[in-house]
Amino acid sequence: MIELSAVEKTFEQPGGERVPALRGVDLSIPAGQFLTVIGSNGSGKSTILNVIAGTYLLDAGTIGIADSDVTRWPEHKRAALLGRVFQDPFKGTCPSMTVAENLRMAELRGKRRGLRLGLDRASLERYRAGLASLGMRLEGRLQASMGTLSGGQRQAVTLLMATICRPMLLLLDEHTAALDPRAAEQIMLVTDHLVRTHALTTLMVTHSMEQAVRFGDRTIMMHRGMIVADLTGDERRGVTEADLLVRFAELRYTTEMRVTKDLRIAP
Ligand SMILES: Nc1ncnc2c1ncn2[C@@H]1O[C@H](COP(=O)(O)OP(=O)(O)O)[C@@H](O)[C@H]1O
Ligand SMILES: [Mg+2]
């Protein structure tokens, strides 16, 4: 269970202007839930992930992960509980190391003791099986250096790395946005496979409304630092990409009409 309560985060821009990025966000994610997040540019999607990961500390509010109140935990301490994948396929892996070595590093990150950097046969076999399960013909590339893989292949390996220690929460920030449509689709299938196989609690930000409603169990929409829609169950199943686009257009309109920050658009 992940619990954000009354979370506030304001950034100060270089010119001194204060930008509220999260305004009173309450969000609780039950264990095993796959939650997708959509919202316009600058609506606070990445900031939610960043405050959970501890990249930024909160101005107000609390964050709980499982039984721990992590509000004041530094980023490196939270990292043990989290898996993260970013938009940039080059982030989070070491290009000069092989695929197998990168996977080993990811495993070592989780458990400091009892594992050595050396790659034994059993580990290699485990990585090969993990890669094979992704269905991207990566099992033959264990000894290839990461830098030689395509963007899609890299994101697949990065996902395997982010989930290898079975994190309490998997954070995905538009992790298919930099890929061509075919690779993006493959990566979404890999994501869904890993999340479901290990029943991972997952928070996925996406620029794609189609992805947001096709994958996962629940979708929230952000607007100007607030959660303005929260869809699950039958209501979510019935929603189309077009419905979401209309909702976005309405939000933009109501914002222009200077509706106050307390407005909550009912799902
Ligand atoms: N490190 C930062 N410094 C200053 N402003 C920031 C920083 N990170 C985010 N912001 C601002 O906070 C708001 C929300 O940003 P972000 O969460 O990245 O939006 P999204 O991911 O939804 O596009 C934006 O106005 C953005 O400019
Ligand atoms: Mg973002």
Q: Distance between the terminal alpha carbons, to the nearest Å?
A: 23 Å
Record the strand order, biggest sheet: 6-7-8-3-9-10
Report the top-level CATH class: Alpha Beta
Show unreliable segments: 258-267
The largest pleated sheet is described as:
6 strands, mixed
Name the hetero compounds present: adenosine-5'-diphosphate, magnesium ion
What keyword list fits this structure?
binds magnesium ion; Rossmann fold; 267 residues; 9 helices; four-stranded antiparallel sheet; binds adenosine-5'-diphosphate; globular; alpha/beta; six-stranded mixed sheet
Give a description of the structure.
The chain is an alpha/beta fold. It has a single domain (2-256), classed as P-loop containing nucleotide triphosphate hydrolases (Rossmann fold, 3-Layer(aba) Sandwich). 36% of the residues lie in helices and 24% in strands. It has 9 helices and 10 strands. The strands form 2 sheets. The protein has a 6-stranded mixed β-sheet with strand order 6-7-8-3-9-10, with helices on both faces. Magnesium ion (MG) binds at residues 45-46.
Give the arrangement of secondary structure elements:
Elements: E1 2-12, E2 18-29, E3 34-39, H1 45-53, E4 60-65, E5 68-69, H2 75-79, E6 82-85, H3 99-110, H4 121-132, H5 151-163, E7 169-173, H6 181-197, E8 202-205, H7 209-214, E9 218-223, E10 226-232, H8 233-237, H9 241-256
Parallel strand pairs: 3-8, 3-9, 6-7, 7-8
Antiparallel strand pairs: 1-2, 1-4, 4-5, 9-10
Helix pairs in contact: 3-5, 5-6
